[in-house]
Amino acid sequence: MKLILSRKGFDSSAGGCPSPLFPDGRGYALPIPDRRSRIPYGEIQWRGQKVGTLIRNLTGDPRARQRKAHLDPDLIADSLPRAPGWRPCLGQSGSAQGHLKKQGVGEGDLFLFFGLFQAVEKQRGRWRFRRDSKPFHGLWGWLQIGEVHAIDQLADGQLPWAGYHPHFHGEADSANTLYVASDQLELAGEKIGCSGAGIFDQMTSKHRLTASQARTTTEWRLPACFYPESVADAMTYHQNMDRWSRTASGCALKSAARGQEFVLDAAHKPEVLDWVKTLLQGVDQ
Length: 285
Fold this sequence. Notes:
Elements: E1 2-7, E2 19-21, E3 32-33, E4 45-46, E5 49-50, H1 51-59, E6 69-70, E7 89-92, H2 94-102, E8 110-123, E9 126-129, E10 136-150, E11 177-181, E12 184-187, E13 190-195, E14 197-199, E15 219-222, E16 244-246, E17 251-254, E18 261-265, H3 271-280
Parallel strand pairs: 1-8, 2-8
Antiparallel strand pairs: 1-18, 3-6, 4-5, 7-11, 8-9, 8-10, 10-11, 10-14, 12-13, 15-17, 16-17
């Protein structure tokens, strides 16, 4: 089984700011902008909030509600009105998909999505970033692969619920792929008791990747099971052993600033699946 740490959501280059971490401990990964998408930010909802208004608050962009969103991964059923049969999904293309294919990622493998977050507060009815907070990388959701589809090879009428998705409206790309979630999450043959895809209810310290006293967001703290004994069992993009060091509570990693999909083969590190279970404790079933 492969575990993929997948970078998704707003940051300084895509969107212009971090995603918000709300006072109740919930994080929402803002979908990045995409002019070719057919989904305006103004149509996306999250827990009763209009995402276009939220982005306008945080960025100051007066046209945020009209701009188009790359809603991907798309994990939350009530984000939009849905066609019958909708399932959580993720699209990938280009070199990032080439990397996933090279690593043999397929059915049964698990994406853990991370992004850049910062605490927000409400002032005078508008959300803003807290001045006493710093951005950090945090884990916000998951998707276990149930099906893999080459989008350009889909037959007419196949996956009719997916036509809204941004990866159906971009430039032609033979690598363009849709990963559809499994119904139920299984780890090493064990049903975990939660859906095959979703978002974490709370972003706690165990979901945080950036070290608490880090100078930069790419200074990560991970469980000891991530530490590579050799290049062969290191997470992709992180085979340089100088990036890693052991700590009293686990290991430290200088994470790659570039790259979207970091793949770890759990066959070499089965303990990471126990770590995944701790992340899922308390999520809505």
